[in-house]
Design a protein that fits this description.
The protein is about 5% helix and about 30% strand. It is elongated and about 185 Å long. It has about 725 residues and is mainly beta. A hairpin with an 8-residue loop joins strand 1 (about 10-15) and strand 2 (about 20-25). The relative contact order is 0.03. Among the domains are: about 10-165, Leucine-rich repeat, LRR (right-handed beta-alpha superhelix) (Alpha-Beta Horseshoe); about 170-350, Ribonuclease Inhibitor (Leucine-rich repeat, LRR (right-handed beta-alpha superhelix), Alpha-Beta Horseshoe); about 665-715, no CATH class.
Length: about 725
């Protein structure tokens, strides 16, 4: 059927985005004898088949805007046929009704002036090159409720750029399941304030899908309607300029990382009814200053507020029963809250309590978490018996804390990275210093461990660079790996007699340590235990040392060490154990040669370095280091001692010493073997003082044992 054509044509004008159109009277314009007319229904040819209409052709002289009606002859227009508008070069825009479900091949090809195609319903199917070579920048303009079938605003749809006319909804993409709408996407070009509609196509919006608004960096505010019950994972992630969020009362759950890195978000009202805050839900919301959790919230996921550096207070309602990974290093929901000074818990909460902004269990027996922004903690209740793992983790502003004597356990990493902490008391009931407990407490100058402590864990004081004094009780039997590594201010430390184990890298990098005595019970020195201790000059082992092994690089680059005596029980010395000890000239072994791991055990020693081993000992062969048996030393010592004795015996009194003696003094010689002098006296008589004869009778004999040094004797009567 061919619609008639006449000179009295009608001018069609679209008055709304709905299917209803209004036909206005014809407009005739004459110029230079040429008649210009607007396109209208009379320009169209169509067919009726099985009760539906297909547009098959259009007059190529039609110009301007054309509205295709939803019905012709009371029958629905459902299709636009092949080549129907091909080469209608003067058409500028066209409106396609909701009833059209298909557009044929080449239907609008070469409509070079066509820049606006208005669709009043869902996207129809389009054949090959349906919109090929239309006007530059041609758009498919769609009502908001239908645009999701075309794709997001700005998307390409069959060569046309999708545009929308109904505000916020135009940016959204959604799905409908069981008559409920889920928002699944928002165009990243969306800007400013966005109000999510409560209904789309008369169906309620009930959820925000995963990643729906992710990276919408130009959005500044979001209003979530009352009917929404869930906010999906990463729903608003990285909306960097999102400053305000209004959440409807119907929301019950906030998904994982839902508002992660919303760095402009300053506040958020979580409505009563929300029961769970997902993992990382508000992570790195660096402008968020406070948050209040309603009584309905029962769980906080791990990392929920991690990195909220401006957050100063958190208020927890009565219903909270679970805080995810509260004592975790990486997933603690309160990690990185450097401005947080107060965690407040509602008094009726059955699981948690707070005092002075510090979080405890309900009975105040466990200190669970100190806010990272706290400066001082002096009011820990006497009921507290335990400080939880990482309770003061990264409290970098904390300068002092007073721990009551009721505390009997301090968890691992409890004071990790408390960089401003200058002093701390450890109660007498503590029996072990756990791993990482005081790691990187860079301002801690001294610490005294109570007598009850039996072990020091790995990394316990690592990187405590200001630590100069450590008092260790006599009951400590083990010091873990890295325990004092990089304690660059530590000058000396007295190790307890009962110690039997020194871990790997235990004093690594203690550049101020000058001397160390290894107790007799220590059986092994760990790898790199004293590596880089550049001020170490003295290492002393107990007389009955039980040392069995010295680990790899144990004394590597101890550049001030001049001598060392290695106990006779050592059976193994690791590779590069003494490498780079540039001042080490004397190494004395007291037993047989141990197993040496590689040729570089003593590499880098000075040229005059000498290794001495006992006479008869086996296995001593080295390249590049002088060695000799201790028999040589022993013989040389004996020779030196005899020389000293000869020198002493050959000494004579000086002239002045003789003059100082009394007249008549006699100089006596001492028997060099016995150290004695024997005096024999007889009596003689004379008549002329020239000739003398013995008087009959026994003589007198006296043996004197002389002490060292010179002595003077006289006869007295």
């Amino acid at each position: 059927m061919l619609a008639g054509c006449s000179n009295s044509r009608l001018f069609a004008r679209v008055l709304s985005m709905q299917t209803e159109t209004r036909i206005l009277p014809a407009l005739l314009i004459f110029s230079a004898g040429v008649s210009l007319r607007a396109a209208d229904l009379s320009d169209l040819s169509y067919e009726i088949n099985r009760g539906s209409v297909t547009i098959t052709d259009c007059d190529t002289e039609a110009t301007g805007a054309l509205v295709i009606p939803e019905t012709i002859a009371s029958k629905p227009v459902t299709g636009i046929g092949e080549n129907a508008f091909r080469e209608c070069t003067s058409l500028t825009n066209i409106t396609i009704p909701n009833s059209v479900t298909s557009i044929g091949d080449f239907a609008f090809q070469d409509c070079t002036s066509l820049t606006s195609i208005i669709f009043l319903g869902t996207a129809p199917t389009v054949g090959n090159d349906g919109f090929d070579n239309v006007g530059d920048g041609a758009k498919a303009i769609v009502p908001g409720e239908f645009h999701s079938s075309f794709g997001s605003v700005g998307a390409d749809w069959n060569g046309l750029t999708v545009d929308c006319v109904d505000g916020a909804i135009c940016w959204l993409t959604w799905t409908t399941t069981d008559d409920e709408v889920t928002i699944i996407d928002c165009a990243t070009e969306a800007t400013g304030a966005l109000v999510i509609p409560g209904t789309i196509g008369d169906k309620p919006v009930t959820s925000i899908g995963d990643n729906a608004f992710q990276d919408c960096t130009s959005l500044t505010s979001i209003n979530i309607p009352e009917g929404v019950t869930s906010i999906g994972d990463m729903a608003f992630r990285s909306c960097a300029n999102l400053a305000e969020v209004t959440i409807g009362e119907g929301v019950t759950s906030i998904g994982q990382y839902a508002f992660l890195v919303c760095t402009s978000l300053t506040s958020i009202n979580i409505p009563e009814g929300v029961t769970s805050i997902g993992q990382g839900a508000f992570g790195n919301c660096t402008s968020l200053t406070s948050i209040t959790l309603p009584n309905s919230v029962t769980s906080i996921g791990r990392e929920a507020f991690t990195g909220c550096t401006s957050l100063t207070s958190i208020t927890i309602g009565n219903g909270l029963t679970s805080i995810g990974q509260l004592n975790s290093a990486l997933e603690n929901p309160f990690k990185g809250l450097t401005s947080l000074t107060s965690i407040n818990v509602a008094g009726e909460n059955p699981n948690y309590a707070s005092d002075a902004g510090v979080l405890y269990n309900k009975n105040y027996t466990i200190l669970l978490r100190c806010p990272e922004g706290k400066v001082e903690v002096h009011s820990i209740p006497d009921s507290v018996t335990s400080i939880a793992h990482r309770a003061f983790y990264y409290c970098s502003s904390l300068t002092s804390v007073t721990i009551p004597e009721s505390v009997t356990s301090i968890g691992y990493s409890a004071f990790y990275y408390c960089g401003s902490l200058t002093n701390i008391n450890i109660p007498d009931g503590i029996t072990s210093i756990e791993n990482y407990t005081f790691r990187a407490c860079t301002s801690l100058a001294s610490i005294e461990l109570p007598e009850g402590v039996t072990s020091i864990g790995s990394y316990a004081f690592r990187e405590c660079g200001s630590l100069t004094s450590v008092t260790i009780g006599d009951r400590v039997t083990s010091i873990g790996d890295f325990a004092f590594r990089s304690c660059t201010g530590l000058v000396s430390i007295e190790l307890p007699d009962d110690l039997f184990s020194l871990g790997h890298e235990v004093f690594y990098g203690c550049t101020s340590l000058t001397s160390i005595t290894i107790p007799e019970g220590v059986t092994s020195i760990g790898n790199a235990a004293f590596l880089g201790c550049s001020s170490l000059t003295s290492i002393t082992f107990g007389e009955s040392s039980q040392l069995d092994s010295i680990g790899h690089t144990a004394f590597y680059q101890c550049t001030s060490l001049t001598s060392i005596t290695i106990p006779d029980g050592v059976t193994s010395i690791g590779y590069e154990a003494f490498l780079g000890c540039t001042s080490l000239t004397s190494i004395t072994f007291l037993g047989d040669a141990p197993t040496f791991w590689g040729p570089d055990v003593f590499s880098g020693l000075p040229a005059n370095a000498l290794i001495t081993y006992p006479g008869g000992a086996a296995g001593y062969t080295f390249e590049g280091v002088n060695i000799q048996s201790a028999l040589v030393d022993q013989l040389q010592t004996a020779i030196d001692e005899k020389d000293a004795q000869i020198a002493e015996l050959s000494q004579r009194p000086t002239l002045q010493e003789v003059r100082d003696g009394r007249p008549g003094s006699v100089l006596l010689s001492v028997d060099s073997e016995t150290g004695t002098v024997v005096l024999n006296f007889t009596v003689e008589e004379s008549e002329d003082l020239i000739t003398w004869t013995p008087v009959e009778g026994p003589g007198v004999s006296q043996t004197l044992t002389l002490p060292e040094g010179k002595r003077f004797y006289r006869f007295a009567h």
